[in-house]
Structures are given as structure tokens and as C-alpha cells.
Amino acid sequence: MKTSNLRRSKEQLPLPRIAVAHESQVPMFQPTRRPVTLSRYVRETPYGTVTITGKLGQGHRDLLDAMLLHSEKVNIRDGRMNALVDPYQIRKAISAGRTMLPYAHIEKLLEDLRTAKVEMTWQDGNRHYRLQEGIITGFVEASSKPVASGTFAQRDANGCDQDHRDMLKITFGQGMTQMLMEDQKIHYPLAPVVGMKHGLSQAIARYCLSHKAVHETFEGICARVGFDLDGKAPRTVRNAKEELRDDAAALATMGIEVRACGSVHRKAGRSKP
Hints:
This protein is an alpha+beta fold. It has helices spanning about 5, 20-25, 60-70, 85-95, 105-115, 175-180, 190-195, 200-210, 220-225, 235-245, 250; strands spanning about 20, 40-45, 50-55, 75, 80-85, 115-125, 125-135, 135-145, 165-170, 185, 215, 255-260, 265.
């Protein structure tokens, strides 16, 4: 990372609209909404190598995308990106029009992002990169912002609305900061991806949206997003295909075609901001 960027601690720096390429091209996040805790899961891909220790799934990725999308203030200190976010806006974004998720759920996802260890190496042109830390290193309540009555302000001990809402300050790890600042930025609408029914579909959508074109068999696209079919029972494979077909209409709105055989195709260019 350029050292000049690290020293501009008081300067607000641009964030990706939603994500960066290697978040989707290397399976950092399990392709499910019900991830399990992994012990040194290693995955080698054409885009880089990743080793995951911890629990990271598509719900965690939803939260990460939402934090980047809704950051209200960003700065760099000691090589780490700090983002100030409104927890209500994050909660609203990852609930995708469904019943609002409790704040306790968001805190659990944040804790998983903090404790999971991600070791990743990749190359971009002649430059080599390495991530060897948690995705975030901490999250704390920060300065509050004024809000109008009836706009989901915080409530006091008596259950009455207050005139402010506390913000969250998210601190990213140094490797993740470097990735977010220097990697290829990816632009796509968050709500349709978060609103999908299945985590496998979400992971496939994110992979496809990080490429100009995709033409993969069902087995091939599953391997790309870290869902190995080798050794899986036939029923498990059938269920996975059904999940993908179940979200086919939502994928089609993003230019991603799911054919009857389960193959996945994207001919359009990257989504625009």
C-alpha cells in the first residue's frame, strides 16, 4: 500500500461502492447462510490462495457489503481503515425487506468477522498482496447523530424515543484495508443479492458480478465459490441445484442466467454504480 495513504489519517478516503474483486473471486465466505466453524480450511484458486479459521458465511458478507455501502465517515490510522456506520442503516440493509434482524444478531456477525482468521495471498499485475489478520480488528460505539422522532431513534430506559442514535466505528485489519483501497472495485445493487433465498445463489451472484463474463457448468461454478461436489450425496447435489433454480429469477435481474442443467452464464459487463 502507498505510504502516503496511510499518513492521511484525517482525510476521508473513498470506499468501494459495494465490494472489491478478491472478496468474491476467492472464497473467503462460505456459500451458505448457515456457516460452520472451520479449522484451517485451505482453498487454492486461479485468483489467490486463502486459509480460513473461523465462521464466515454469506450473512457476514452481507454485513460487510452493507458497512462499505453505508459508511458515513472513513479515515486511515496506523494502516487500518476506520468506518463510521449507522447501525440502523446496516440493520435495514441486511434485513432486505424481511422482518428486521435484532441488533444482537449484527453484533454476533461483527464478532465473527473480528475473531475469524483470514490468511490470503494474491497477485495483481506485478504486485503481490498478503492478508494475514481478521477482516475487522474491532467495533465500538462512537459519537451519536441527531435523528427525528419516529425514525428509529434509540429508546431510553423508559421506552421513550431519544433524539439521537449511537454510531458504530468499525476498524478493519491492515491487510483488509489494503485490499479495500487497492483492489478492483465492484459495483452492484446490494438489496437483490441480500434478498436471495439461498447462500449458494448469493455466492454465485457475487462471483459472476466480479467478472465481465462467466460460462460455467453447475459443478464448475460450485467449485469457484467453494462448494465442492466431490463426495457429496446425490440428494445434496440435487438440493443445491434446486436452490440455484429457486433464485434464478433474482439472478436474471443482474444479467446472470441459470439454465435447466444448472449451468451459469453472464454475458454482460460489470454492473455500473
